[in-house]
Structures are given as C-alpha cells and as structure tokens.
Amino acid sequence: MSAKYWITIVMAIAMIVTGNRLGLTHESQGNHPHEPMEVPAGQPIPTVDLVVHPDSVRGWNLEVKVSNFRFAPEQASRDARPGEGHAHLYVNGEKITRIYGNWYYLSTLKPGQNQLRVSLSTNNHQDLVHQGQAIEDVEMIQVEAEAN
Question: For residues 36 and 5, which has the higher predicted lDDT (pLDDT)?
C-alpha cells in the first residue's frame, strides 16, 4: 500500500481520537460568540483581579487573582458550572489565549498603550456574567519603544 494511503489512515485516526475536524480546533475557529452564563441567584459571585508584574528580564507576568471561582483545566469543553472554568486573555481586544491557572507570562506587547483584559468563562466557553455584566478585569500598560 502507498504512503499516501497510510498517511490518510493515520490522519483519520488522529482526528477521531482527538475529536478534531479538519484541523479546526476551538481556538482556530476564531472568536465565535457564546451565549453568556448569568451566575445563578444564591450562588457566590466570582471575581477576577488582573495584576501585571513586569518581568525582571523581559515581558510581563500576569497574576490572575480569583474568588468564588476555580480554574478547572480537567473540565475543559465540558458542561458549564458557574463557579469553575478558565479565563480568556485579550490584548487590545484580540483574544490571545485561555488561562487555566493564576499566572501567565506575556512576552511582548506593541509600543504604546495596550489594554489587557481577562474575563472568566465556564468550562464550555460561555462568558460568566453577573447582572448582565461580564466578570472581567482590565489593565492598561504603557510600553516604551525599544531603541535599535
């Protein structure tokens, strides 16, 4: 049998095992909208506080402080639970990554004013909201242009 045949078989098995359809992961499908999830009445309201620490060598260490919320990487893309999930990091309005813990290293930002936003999301990627407002925090970072 030809190499092309075996490559096709291996690719098909890999897609079945990973649940990946034609290389389209959740992240590569763009910033498609998800319905927000209102924190149910009577449940503690999650909070998030983004603290930006300049790294001693280069970049920034982002500390994501949360309360009434648990990072749950083991539940990624599973059923929504209002007090657990992950965070989304946006830089200047563009989604950069998911965050599954309290720290994230950000290596570069463009010179000038930059907006960093972290929002809490459920396991199945719904934005967590309270009274219709996203549970998020925003910090502005001024980056000086590097001399060449």
Answer: 36
